[in-house]
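Give me structure tokens for this 474-residue protein.
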Amino acid sequence: MTSATPQGSVPPEDQLLIESVDGGFPAAVNDLGALVRIPGIAWPAFDQSQLQRSAEAVASLARGTGLFDTVDIKRAPLADGDDGELGQPAVLAVRQAKAGRPTVMLYAHHDVQPPGDDELWDTPPFEPTVRDGRIYARGAADDKAGVMTHIASLRALAETVGDDDLDLGLVLFVEGEEEHGSRSFGPFLAENAEQMRSDVIVVADSGNFDSETPAVTVSLRGNAKFHLTVRTLDHASHSGMFGGAVPDAMMATVRLLSTLWDEHGSVAVEGLVAREAETPPYDEAQLRDETGLLDGVRPAGDGTILSRIWNKPTVTVTGIDFTPVASASNTLSPEVTVVLSCRIAPGQASADAYAAIERHLRQRAPFGAQLEFSEVDLGDSVLIDTDGWAIGAVREALADGYGKDPVDYGVGGSIPFISDLVERFPGAQILVTGVEDPHSRAHSPNESLHIDTFRHAIRSETLLLGRMNRREMP
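Here you go.
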């Protein structure tokens, strides 16, 4: 696991930082392996004690850097829960700035997605396995590599700059429920605002253009997720006796859902908007390579491929409650529930988008079917301000850390809590980076981390922090 020093214009005072990162990289990989062995999943159906175990492991790593004045594991009330109900454990470590230096918040999350069907994994999901230059495990990329990017960068900073000469303020914030909606995020910020106040916030939970080309994420789509229940009968009936006259719930659901897209697969909901923005070159061959699109299956939508992914809305059915195939009988179904996950174009409020989708469905309910909407979860899109000094600093650090100029990147996924950070800390500059590449398969079976990308991400963040330690705030 060796890699040549990047061919960027790294000045001599930063060479020691790069050398320290490379010397500490095997330890970072080992510690990442220990973290991914902890199955910390915030879904209530899973063992919640594993999240406490995961938080304690992250807190121990933070203390081990020797840089923080305080390291605590904290919980905050759920924004949408009952009185006294707390969210999952988060790690908050703080070091005060000195000598007029900026304070940098480093964000990541230690919880992970459920593994799904173990049979779809080539190796056990919580046993890190190295093959073909990648580490395979649930959370290896999303987002325990983000956690370890922060920790490894801080270790290199401690070794190279030293505690006495480190004037940079630091806030390490590693939450434990990002994959479950960050339900206590807002209250956590409110309760700890003074400790967490920062000039720059680095969110290590995004991706890169490819395994060699770094990216600065400048836009993310919003999301609107909800359950839709369609009812046509008050009890099941024999499909032979009454089929043809009685519309069953599945028939109504299929007809209703089909109205959400046009013949090209583009979303056909009045009131949903698209963002107009240029996108870099990206062809169908690259899409097929990165997604596993089957031979003969055509891409959906229109416009450039990246505009469909970054700047247009989507509607996806991600779950359905209906009779399993093994239990199927000749029965007219009285009701069907589906989960709809919708991505909202950057710039549109998620509440407005959800209202448009609900209105569309209610106006088109087939046969007068009864519709019920529940479990509504909204998150706003993000457009990053690219005018501040910090965006230039991170671009330079990425260029030197990877040996290749970064691209400005749009992401089809959502990180809704960034809008909470902007609201709570309006003067902070937000930098969204990450360690994923298009083959990481985050949230899917066989999730993986490209090892050289991990190394370059640590180099880049270390350079960014080391240079900020030499920067005086105006």
